Hints:
The chain has 295 residues and is mainly alpha-helical. The chain has helices at residues 8-34, 37-44, 53-64, 84-100, 102-113, 119-157, 170-187, 190-199, 205-210, 212-226, 232-252, 256-294, and strands spanning 77-78, 168-169. It has two domains: 1-188, no CATH class; 199-281, no CATH class. It is flat, with a radius of gyration of 27 Å.
Amino acid sequence: xxxxxxxxxxxxxxxxxxxxxxxxxxxxxxxxxxxxxxxxxxxxxxxxxxxxxxxxxxxxxxxxxxxxxxxxxxxxxxxxxxxxxxxxxxxxxxxxxxxxxxxxxxxxxxxxxxxxxxxxxxxxxxxxxxxxxxxxxxxxxxxxxxxxxxxxxxxxxxxxxxxxxxxxxxxxxxxxxxxxxxxxxxxxxxxxxxxxxxxxxxxxxxxxxxxxxxxxxxxxxxxxxxxxxxxxxxxxxxxxxxxxxxxxxxxxxxxxxxxxxxxxxxxxxxxxxxxxxxxxxxxxxxxxxxxxxxx
Length: 295
């Protein structure tokens, strides 16, 4: 997109091109993911048995202190609908394509909004886009390697009676898998949201520090919602990363002093622009008078 004045329809045409590129790449990645069914679902079903990396890690840690490791388990997933497996395959392929193509999609959106920004704004937004992507993938990893296994272990092995075995449907497990993974990816965007709210002056570093205790309570409640587990250990395992994100949000937020300084700088810049406009008007007026005198 050239740095020239464009009409509304020109912008709409550029947006159409960006959306077509995004949809085209998303469709191509979905088709490609569809042909990697076995490795894809091996990863998805990994947390369903005690051989998963998190459980083996717990076994080693508990063994170092002389405690019993994680009980061996193997949760079976069943299908009860005729078309569920095929449509689940399509759904997961689309999800994988969305995750893999996320950097490209963000870049396309960036190319659309970049010409409308000032150099200072371009630098800030470009950094925000990149950092948001990194945090999103970190959230996905935390969800897959930590939150999902703990939730699966608790809910998949919980029984009200030994006479009532758990028969987990494929759609139920995939729904929980995608939901938890996406929730953790979104939750990890907390520092970005805090930085943006701080940028426009709605929150500050001092405000987040002041309400830290209240935030801890809210984060523990959020951890309980994300992982419907009854034991405090699982809740704390999830709450700790959320609390670390809150502390990181404090670090990336601006202080009230910096916000006030930037506000003063913006006011000075606006005054300077007004002075330039006034001087330009005076110069134009003088040129007109000089022209009339010449006549």
